[in-house]
Amino acid sequence: SALLWLSSALYSTSRQQVDTSELRSILGTDDASSQRVLNSVSRPIYRNAVLQAVAKYNRTEAPEVLQTARKALCLSEAAGAQVHAAVYDAQLDLLLDDTKATLDEADMEILGELEGMLQVRGASAALRRRTEPLYQQTASAALAAIFDAPADGNAISLWGNLAIRQQELQLPTDTAKATL
Question: Is pLDDT of 147 > 90?
Answer without folding.
Answer: no
